[in-house]
DNA sequence: TAGTGGTCTAGACCACCTT
DNA sequence: AGGTGGTCTAGACCACTAT
């Protein structure tokens, strides 16, 4: 695990402070931050970029800077600008781990363009909110980068967090494919829905230092899950009614 | 329409050249670009940032820079890092415009947090690839910013392009909600699928200068459409087989 | 009018990859 | 070894907003 650049340390620190509510009554400007951290304004701007892109802090030329969203549970990193969050309808969320071991898989290796015998850490979980399953996911990460994952408790912790803190690993590129498919018999059984009912599936392939490193499938119940993506300071269109369900208007 | 910053002009110019294949045999380095455009390296880095984020050019410390993806049809702009493209299975794509007029709508105004009588330009289309409909979309944009849209030919041109070139308008923030829902009778009829079959719906709310400006609903046939998001230099995991459909392996 | 962020410059040093 | 991009500095000027 190499040392992080200064701008990244500052960015992490600011995110942490924001999440603890430190700036609820006003976020400092770039000049003030520049003094506080003892770095140039350019470095501060670099640190603020991800926070602004992800809509965590807002402001703009002339405006007083402010905090938009404190409740953001997501970690930090570029992949979160891809798929910010799967939000379940419900409160208490936990996971049942149904697989957590080393495997090889020709299908996975092929999908990632790796050698057929590449060993992966394989994790599969069923995610539950308030007693009702709302999604299942499974992932394969090249074992050489993710062995501590085998011993982690994944019922309450995200894989991303474990990778970051225990493995010092963060994905730097990737692609996501999202589909809507009918539930197969097996999945319908595990998620307690009717066979054929609409599911949201997301396949993600991620890279580590430019090399394929992870394949992840997420499979979510259509009417229990909303996939949300935020870009920039969207505070003007958040929380103004509706959860994104289509408006009931004829398609004239 | 105000003048664009220099870095943005350079970014647009580079994207244009990339798409015309000018750099197929090698992309210039930052120093070379700095000389060519007569600006400092910082400005060049700013211009390259969106191209690198969207995985259009690649490289890295020490590596020779290169072009990853020329065939990118998408325009330019931050919203495209949200929902890069809806890719249909098929070749010839066109749209049938089923609505293109000024309207007011309490539902839309409410969803955007605007006054109930706000006039919108309303556009609704059914999108077809190789003769089969694969998606429909409808949008409402505040009329004051988008009037030229009323007279545009939208059968072959994207709304985004018209907004950019004719209205000088680009969204700077937004949120997208993605769901999987069963087809209603009306939508099933228009898209030529069975009632109840899985659809992918995307609702987007966008901002212009920090104010709500657009609501857009897209409704796509599950098995004809893939929603793709790319982050960074994902060249290692693109084109290595599979279209993102879930692997057929039991969820042990 | 004061303070903010957006843009831009002209340097510097270093880590990393290719050769 | 030479070239690349990543990081950082210390300035500058300007557009915009709030007051």
Automatic annotation (TrEMBL), chains A, B:
Name recorded for this polypeptide: GntR family transcriptional regulator
Keyword terms, alphabetized: DNA-binding, Transcription, Transcription regulation
PROSITE patterns: HTH_GNTR
Source organism superkingdom: Bacteria
The UniProt record lists the keyword Cytoplasm: no
UniProt xrefs under Pfam families: GntR, UTRA
Keyword set includes Transcription: yes
Ranges of residues in domain HTH gntR-type: 4-70
């Amino acid at each position: 695990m190499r040392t992080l650049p200064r701008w990244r340390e500052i960015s992490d620190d600011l995110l942490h402070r924001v999440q603890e509510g430190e700036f609820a009554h006003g976020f400092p400007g770039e000049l003030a931050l520049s003094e506080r951290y003892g770095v140039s304004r350019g470095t501060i701007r670099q640190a603020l970029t991800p926070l602004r892109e992800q809509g965590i802090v807002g402001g703009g030329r002339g405006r007083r800077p402010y905090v938009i969203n404190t409740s953001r549970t997501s970690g930090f990193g570029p992949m979160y600008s891809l798929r910010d969050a799967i939000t379940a309808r419900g409160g208490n969320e936990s996971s049942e781990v149904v697989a957590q071991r080393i495997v090889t898989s020709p299908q996975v290796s092929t999908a990632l363009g790796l050698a057929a015998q590449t060993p992966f850490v394989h994790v599969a979980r069923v995610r539950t909110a308030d007693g009702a399953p709302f999604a299942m996911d499974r992932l394969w990460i090249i074992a050489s980068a993710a062995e501590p994952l085998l011993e982690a408790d994944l019922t309450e912790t995200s894989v991303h967090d474990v990778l970051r803190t225990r493995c010092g690993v963060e994905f730097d590129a990737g692609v996501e494919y999202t589909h809507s498919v009918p539930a197969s018999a097996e999945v319908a059984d595990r998620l307690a829905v009717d066979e054929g009912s609409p599911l949201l599936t997301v396949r993600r392939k991620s890279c580590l230092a430019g090399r394929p490193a992870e394949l992840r499938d997420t499979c979510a119940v259509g009417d229990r899950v909303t996939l949300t993506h935020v870009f920039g300071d969207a505070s003007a269109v958040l929380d103004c009614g509706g959860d994104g369900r289509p408006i009931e208007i004829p398609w004239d």
